[in-house]
Amino acid sequence: KHLEYSTILNKLDDFISTFLDPSPLRPSIDPEHSMSGYFAPVEELPPTACTEVAVEVGGGLLPSCLDGAYIRNGPNPQFVVTEGRRRPYHLFDGDGMLHMIEISGGKATTFCSRYVKTHKHTVELRSAEQWLRSRQTSVALLPGGGGGAANLFALSECDLPYEIKVTENGDIVTLGRHDFHNNSNNNNNNNRPLLFFNMTAHPKVDVKTGETFAYRYNITRPFLTIFRIDPEGRKQKDVHVHSLKGCTIIHDFSVTENFCVFVDTQIVVNPLSVLRPPVGVDRAKVPRVGVIGKYAEDDSGMWWTEVPGLNMFHSVNAWEEDGGGGGTIVAVVSNALRVEELFESIGLAQLRLEKITIDVNAHTVHRQPLSTKFLDFGVINPAYAARKNRYVYAAMIGPKSVDGIVKLDLSLTQKDGHGDCVVASRLYGPGCCGGEPFFVSKEPNNPSVEEDDGYLVAFVTDENNGESKFVVMDAKSATLDIIAAVKLPCRIPCGFHGIFITEGDLNKV
């Protein structure tokens, strides 16, 4: 039945695009643009040896702290729109592919690219045609197996997480959909995911307690629901937020020791829209910041305050000041200055990093830009999550995609009149595109090591020759020097987020 319905819907879609709405497609949804060049999808690649490695230091070996696996995701649709068809395709509409390099004993061993085998992927594989839109936008280690063990998940805000596993031979397999043993809301069938149930692609793990804090947004009331997952991997009670009056795209949020912080942006969803896309920008709406206690039983204590111009896309980190009493919350976020362009072109959206200071008692918010550069995909040393950090590493957003990386020193914001916190940067070179970096500490188990004493890792693709590399940069150097590069056995297209997993953790998941 699903295949019959998909065929009918696709035929109807083609008829509408060809005869009822023959206007040219915008570049952001025209497959000739959104499926070409750096964005062109690739096929799956089983575990393949990495043979070309250039290491500038360490006697030809990669740093020992990089023993483990680096995994980065991307949209990568499994079906390319054929020539002559006008069906739109947006970068966010892909199926979800994971690209992974494994390192052991200082040597890059294997690389593989595998689809996340979602329900959507399986159905479309049988029908040999795309009929749903979805995306896997993040990868994370979350509690899920009991006994405090962490499991590896591919995450999407329009579906449940999918548990994945790295095999002994360096392959990636999808174990299936996971609902964290849902025991809330009188769900009598705890092992079966709820219909239309979804979860953010950016949950936050409290490293002190082992808990995970997450949420979901919906097109019907309640538009926002917050929940947590205990250290044993069990989902707890839903907290419905009734003060959100419409469906807003809330892609990310911030979590501190005592609070969760949300931004009600101008990006809204109107599921009843017929003549226009259901996702759009409400220019008359004033963005708001909402603060709620991390362990709130309901939303009665949640408060909102208007913050004109704040359309947060990603949260980098957040913490509390004033002696930990919760009087002040500081968050570092990426903000889309031209939010109407966010789904058209990341280069036109003018994303920048800002420091947001929230007075919890006065219910006021102060915004401070951290750089004049267009930046997103900011990361920190993971050991500083939810506590005050000094350094941020972010992707430089060029006209088409990510063309470099910067390091910011947040201590410079304490100096009056200081306009830019960038203290180091590196361009990948003409025609080269990267993605979100990931920080790996040289000594992750040493609490006295300096915050920036480590490496930045990322995948970089050269459009000129179609080659991709795994690059390792010195996070302390003034120019973020590349100290090692591994040529990969295939090209890697545009992607979103990544994670590095140590060899020790890899053996546990």
State the secondary-structure class: mainly beta
Shape: globular
Low-confidence stretches: 1-6, 183-196
The total domain count is 1
* Computed Rg: 22 Å
The overall pLDDT average reads 87
CATH class, please?
Answer: Mainly Beta
CATH topology: Neuraminidase
Give a short account of the largest sheet.
6 strands, antiparallel
Helix content: under 10%
Q: Characterize the quaternary organization of these chains.
A: single chain
In total, the number of strands is 33
Which band does the percent of strand residues land in?
A: 35-45%
Distance between the termini: 37 Å
Q: Tally the helices: what do you get?
A: 4
At CATH's second level, what is the architecture? 6 Propeller
**CATH homologous superfamily?**
TolB, C-terminal domain
Task: Describe the structure concisely for a colleague.
This protein is mainly beta and 509 residues long. 7% of the residues lie in helices and 38% in strands.
Describe this structure in words.
By secondary structure, the chain is mainly beta. It has a single domain, classed as 6 Propeller (Neuraminidase), CATH 2.120.10. The protein has helices spanning 2-20, 31-34, 119-127, 503-506; strands spanning 45-49, 52-55, 68-74, 97-104, 107-115, 138-143, 150-155, 162-166, 172-177, 204-205, 212-217, 224-229, 239-241, 254-255, 259-264, 267-269, 279-281, 288-293, 303-306, 312-321, 328-336, 351-359, 364-369, 375-379, 391-397, 402-409, 422-427, 432-433, 438-441, 454-462, 467-474, 482-487, 498-502. Strands 2, 28, 29, 30, 31 and 32 form a six-stranded antiparallel beta sheet that branches. Strands 1-5-4-3-33 form a five-stranded antiparallel beta sheet. It has a four-stranded antiparallel beta sheet with strand order 6-7-8-9, with no helix packed on it. The model is unreliable at 1-6 and 183-196 (pLDDT under 50). InterPro entries: Carotenoid_Oase (IPR004294).
